[in-house]
């Protein structure tokens, strides 16, 4: 019975996750994915396999964003935060040091960061990682964080942005480009980041009027430079109006010539 | 009584008619003949298909939309609280048909339901720790709403949550209450910050600071969302788990009465509900639904449901003389347009004078309103809007606080009911001693929407586990009404 329940919940989350991935994915899915999806509409077992796949993926995200309580208790908050960032395949730089700690292409990293347990993290690059609002719990104590890059993170949504208020006194640069789940409601929560100077909002598919949002953000955060959206985006283009006027003039010219 | 399947028997006789019209042109007669034959054959085919097994024709005419004849739990009221209870009951039951839940809603269009007419705000800035815990749980529920409420092959739930937070303003004389509340909120886990007037001026330059001594801003888990999306998501998920939905009005109950003697020697009439009479819309037909437990989540009409059981109709000194203190109170909401108004950082502003205002969309529209004085409560017989109230009471207070609102245009307005708890304006959850199988979940006085997921879980735990497991809401129990012990919230809207 519990297995049936688990399968039921897998069924529910997974098919929706598939649809979500497809609807929010920038490129069209591959032929293989579309073929599998077509099959899953006809066969229950294919649907079940896809569901299990997506359920495992969502469990993977939850596992990656778990609280690193053991590391926090035994090695301190800074080391735990550093360890968390590296396991997510992100990179960071401590305040006062100039070299970045990065994992290599296979995800392995050195444990040198453990030698400086008092150093706070200043810059974090989490682009393309699976961080979500629960994972931010591991970074909450980093009150010297100045740069945060979340380029192309699929799990970053409005609730994540609402939690960023903990960095309100220190965050200077924030890169939110290509995070497909962010909407205007989440960007409104950035009002708590009073020291923000650079904000990147390019490539956000759920913003209907990027130009208007840029104007509103610049008004909300007066010292901040917002990039990634042009003022004309979302406006009715004046070029089409000029074109119709040009046609109109040409026709009147020919009309006058006939007279 | 028995519906005739083959009513087209006379049609076969009509085939003879063309032969009689000898005088009319033969070609016209032939055309009629074939057209008629075609229509008759088609009708014959449809009737034959209906008669075959697999069609839904039945000789007994059944009213569509009747509720089932028996159910385990009947939830009176199909608003967000009722559907939340239905969802959590099924969630806790775990087995597919382990519990038969029926939700009865009077109005399929939800035209007067408080859920859909509300402003949709959620905040943790209360003074009672139960209220803070309820809305904190609801915010966490909405954070992971797709894990809870997604259905196979349907779109993911989008609540359109705006995370702008609530901003409460306090004058000199209520600043100490705000500080006390801030301590309670922080203790329970809400993320709130106190702001001084100078910090407020720096953050929100469009606001007039006159009279403001202290302000409290919600940093996280606060804002507003679309109540219709939440209601539909809960309903969709509950129906997919097997909850029965019926559109009809509860007109009465059939109870088994027992006499019980109190320690004072008073004899009380304890009624156990056996049947709920559900009347179909626009009809006199009703279905008595045999049930074990009834949940009163009827919102503004909860008092009426309670009086059907005789609660409040007894002698004044006894337990049965205390009515359920929930009555509908009309509140107005005005949509105003001000192109020079505050921008994206506008929180849900609540002034100490009682006026509130929040941003709606990106086009310079705002939603505003105010709670009227106790003595000036508007008439509750209809949902008409009183625009004079805005002109006389709301506008000048709003323009005093936000100077840009001196020039605005009211583009729209609506009115809705609060299920107002006249006793202490907090929710009533629990059993009544005179009706041992009716659970109450009502009287939230404007906070029902933001507390609904948590209240649903609490009532489901009461019904299935016999006690609270997640959040302890014993302070909100119904017995405080009978014992006359109000728990009051300071700073209410």
TrEMBL record, chain A:
GO CC field: SCF ubiquitin ligase complex
InterPro entries assigned: LRR_dom_sf
Lineage: Eukaryota, Metazoa, Chordata, Craniata, Vertebrata
Subunit structure: Interacts with incompletely assembled mitochondrial NADH:ubiquinone oxidoreductase complex (complex I).
Function (record text): Required for the assembly of the mitochondrial NADH:ubiquinone oxidoreductase complex (complex I). Involved in the assembly of the distal region of complex I.
Region (Disordered): 237-259
Similarity comment text for this entry: Belongs to the ATP synthase subunit s family.
Name recorded for this polypeptide: Distal membrane-arm assembly complex protein 2
Coiled-coil annotated spans: none
BP GO annotations: SCF-dependent proteasomal ubiquitin-dependent protein catabolic process
From TrEMBL, chain B:
GO BP terms, alphabetized: mitochondrial respiratory chain complex I assembly
GO cellular component, one term: mitochondrial inner membrane
One Gene Ontology term of the molecular function aspect: oxidoreductase activity
UniProt protein name: FAD-dependent oxidoreductase domain-containing protein 1
Keywords recorded for this protein, A-Z: Electron transport, FAD, Flavoprotein, Membrane, Mitochondrion, Mitochondrion inner membrane, Oxidoreductase, Respiratory chain, Transmembrane, Transmembrane helix, Transport
Domain FAD dependent oxidoreductase: 72-462
Purpose of the protein: Required for the assembly of the mitochondrial membrane respiratory chain NADH dehydrogenase (Complex I). Involved in mid-late stages of complex I assembly.
Membrane disposition: Single-pass membrane protein
Subcellular localization, as worded in the UniProt entry: Mitochondrion inner membrane
Main localization (coarse): mitochondrion
Cofactor: FAD
């Amino acid at each position: 019975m519990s297995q049936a329940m688990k399968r039921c919940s897998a069924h529910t989350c997974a098919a929706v996750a598939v649809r979500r991935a497809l609807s929010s994915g920038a490129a069209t899915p591959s032929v293989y994915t579309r073929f599998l999806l077509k099959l899953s509409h006809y066969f229950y077992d294919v649907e079940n396999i896809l569901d299990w796949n997506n359920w495992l993926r969502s469990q993977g995200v939850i596992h990656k964003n778990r609280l690193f309580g053991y590391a926090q208790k035994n090695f301190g908050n800074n080391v735990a935060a550093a360890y968390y960032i590296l396991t997510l395949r992100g990179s960071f730089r401590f305040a006062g040091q100039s070299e970045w700690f990065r994992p290599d292409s296979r995800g392995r990293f050195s444990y040198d960061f453990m030698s400086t347990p008092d150093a706070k993290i200043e810059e974090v690059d989490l682009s393309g990682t699976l961080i979500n609002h629960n994972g931010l719990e591991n970074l909450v104590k980093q009150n010297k964080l100045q740069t945060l890059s979340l380029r192309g993170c699929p799990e970053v949504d409005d609730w994540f942005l609402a939690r960023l208020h903990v960095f309100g006194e220190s965050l200077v640069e924030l890169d939110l480009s290509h995070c497909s789940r962010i909407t205007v409601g989440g960007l409104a929560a950035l009002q708590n980041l009073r020291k923000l100077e650079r904000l990147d909002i390019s490539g956000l598919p759920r913003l209907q009027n990027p130009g208007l949002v840029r104007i509103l953000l610049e008004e909300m955060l007066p010292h901040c430079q917002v990039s990634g959206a042009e003022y004309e985006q979302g406006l009715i283009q004046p070029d089409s109006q000029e074109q119709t006027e040009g046609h109109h003039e040409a026709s009147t010219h020919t009309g006058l010539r006939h007279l | 009584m028995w519906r005739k399947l083959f009513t087209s028997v006379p049609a076969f006789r009509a085939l003879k008619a063309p032969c009689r019209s000898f005088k009319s042109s033969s070609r016209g007669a032939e055309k009629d003949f074939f057209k008629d034959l075609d229509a008759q054959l088609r009708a014959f085919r449809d009737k034959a298909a209906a008669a075959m097994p697999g069609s839904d024709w039945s000789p007994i005419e059944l009213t569509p939309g009747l509720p089932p004849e028996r159910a385990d739990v009947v939830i009176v009221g199909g608003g967000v609280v009722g559907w939340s209870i239905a969802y959590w009951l099924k969630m806790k039951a775990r087995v597919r048909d382990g519990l038969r839940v029926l939700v009865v809603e009077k109005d399929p269009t939800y035209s007067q339901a408080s859920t859909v007419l509300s402003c949709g705000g959620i905040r943790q800035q209360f003074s009672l720790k139960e209220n803070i815990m309820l809305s904190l749980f609801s915010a966490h529920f909405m954070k992971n709403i797709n894990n809870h409420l997604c259905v196979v092959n349907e779109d993911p739930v989008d609540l359109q949550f705006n995370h702008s937070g609530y901003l409460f303003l306090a004058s000199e004389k209520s600043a100490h209450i705000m500080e006390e509340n801030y301590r309670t909120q922080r203790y329970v886990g809400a993320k709130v910050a106190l702001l001084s007037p100078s910090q407020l001026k720096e953050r929100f330059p469009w606001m007039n600071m006159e009279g403001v001594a202290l302000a409290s801003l919600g940093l996280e888990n606060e804002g507003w969302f679309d109540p219709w999306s939440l209601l539909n998501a809960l309903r969709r998920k509950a129906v997919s788990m097997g909850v029965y939905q019926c559109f009809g009005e509860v007109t009465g109950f059939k109870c088994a009465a027992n006499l019980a003697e109190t320690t004072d020697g008073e004899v009380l009439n304890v009624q156990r509900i056996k049947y709920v009479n559900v009347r179909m819309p626009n009809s006199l037909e009703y279905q008595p639904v045999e049930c074990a437990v009834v949940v009163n989540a009827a919102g503004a009409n909860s008092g009426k449901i309670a009086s059907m059981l005789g609660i409040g109709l007894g002698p004044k000194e006894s337990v049965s003389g205390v009515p359920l203190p929930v009555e509908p109170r009309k509140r107005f909401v005005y949509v105003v347009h001000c192109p020079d108004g505050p921008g994206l950082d506008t929180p849900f502003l609540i002034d100490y004078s009682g006026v509130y205002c929040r941003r709606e969309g990106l086009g310079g529209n705002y939603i505003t309103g105010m709670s009227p004085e106790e003595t000036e409560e508007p008439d509750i017989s209809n949902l008409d809007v009183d625009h004079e109230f805005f002109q006389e009471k709301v506008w000048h207070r709003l323009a005093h606080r936000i100077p840009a609102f001196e020039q605005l245009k009211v583009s729209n307005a609506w009115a809705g009911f609060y299920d107002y708890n006249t006793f202490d304006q907090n929710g009533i959850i629990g059993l009544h001693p005179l009706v041992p199988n009716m659970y109450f979940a009502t009287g939230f006085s404007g906070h029902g929407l933001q507390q609904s997921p948590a209240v649903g879980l609490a009532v489901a735990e009461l019904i299935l586990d016999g006690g609270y497991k997640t959040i302890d809401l014993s302070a909100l129990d119904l017995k405080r009404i009978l014992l006359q012990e109000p728990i009051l919230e300071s700073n209410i809207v």
